Amino acid sequence: MRSGAKGGGCFFITVVSVCFFLCMFVSAIPVYAAGEMYVWGWNEDGQCNVPEPNTGFTAIAAGGYQSIGRKANSSILAWGDNVQGQCNVPEPNTGFTAIAGGGFHSLGLKTNGSIVVWGDNFYNQLNVPEPNTGFTAISAGFIHSLGLKADGSIVAWGWNDYNQCNVPSPNTGFTAIATGYSHSLGLKSDGSIVAWGWNDYGQCNVPSPNTGFTAIATGRAHSLGLKTDGSIVAWGSNGSGQCAVPSPNTSFKAISAGWYHSLGLKTNGSVVAWGDNGLGQCTVPSPNTGFKAISANGYNSIALKGCLYNMAGDLNDDCKVDFGDFAIMAENWLIDCYMNPSNPACASK
Q: CB-based burial of residue 52 (10 Å sphere; 0-12 exposed, 13-18 middle, 19+ buried)?
């Protein structure tokens, strides 16, 4: 152990030197507010009122009536309608890697692959099937939930009146999941989409050719798929134009869908919104640039701004490489080398 600690001292000195060196150069770089969240649309329950400080967010999720954000320290903040406790994040509020918002319930994925759930449970949407481990992704429908396992299988629970929890066979090879009001989508490793559940508006009828998809999203009764060429395919209910992707339908890198509207994130950091705009959910705040993530649900839209430039070593998303990042590196080293002395990187040579 002493020998490992000695090697760690060299590591500390190196990190300090690198931090001082990089800080001299990044201080003059113009940046957007790091991890700043923008929420727009319906605000009757305060779901657009981001708690201060509005910074340091690394992930976002829109629920039916609540908004959720994951901070750089892996904790979760939730606000908006809380009538069913969907904003009361259970303790310990740490170690989260992903978040999702349903109608009146919320989900958080832990670093150990388990799912934490809170809020309304009238339809068992909080009852994660055992074993609650090995999950890599989560999605929350209005009153049902999905979890993606590391082995490529999907676990579904909650309201099942439309068979939205009956994952079609073979339940394997999935890489992404999405949940609508009462239908579900799964993206396969071969780029095809599997859809099941409520289909009154054709939201489960994936257009041909069902191939080349890289991402999926679901609204109340419509579905979106992002193609490898950066175009978006939309199908299902189109009463508010939520399936009418604006031209040019190209250069998209992420998608999301609310109940009657849709969002697309462009490679240049701008957000495109279309469909119902009765509550301003398609009116993207200015300046429409610098966005790095989007989420939509209900009558709301959320977008996350980040750094103007991607900087190696910026571990806490503050658009700087400084002692905050050094502290994270040091903490990680302490965990690896003192809590896990068998780590080969810390072992004596």
A: exposed
CA angle 75–81–86, rounded 5-degree value: 45
**Cα atoms in the Cβ-side hemisphere of radius 13 Å centred on 280:** 10
Average pLDDT of span 84-88: 98
Distance of CA 209 to the CA centre of its chain: 27
CB 196 within 8 A of CB 164: yes
Question: Residue 94: what are its φ and ψ, rounded to 5°?
Answer: -160, 165
**Do 324 and 330 contact (CB within 8 A), yes or no?**
no
Residues 6+ apart with CB under 8 A from 130: none
* Global confidence as pTM: 0.82
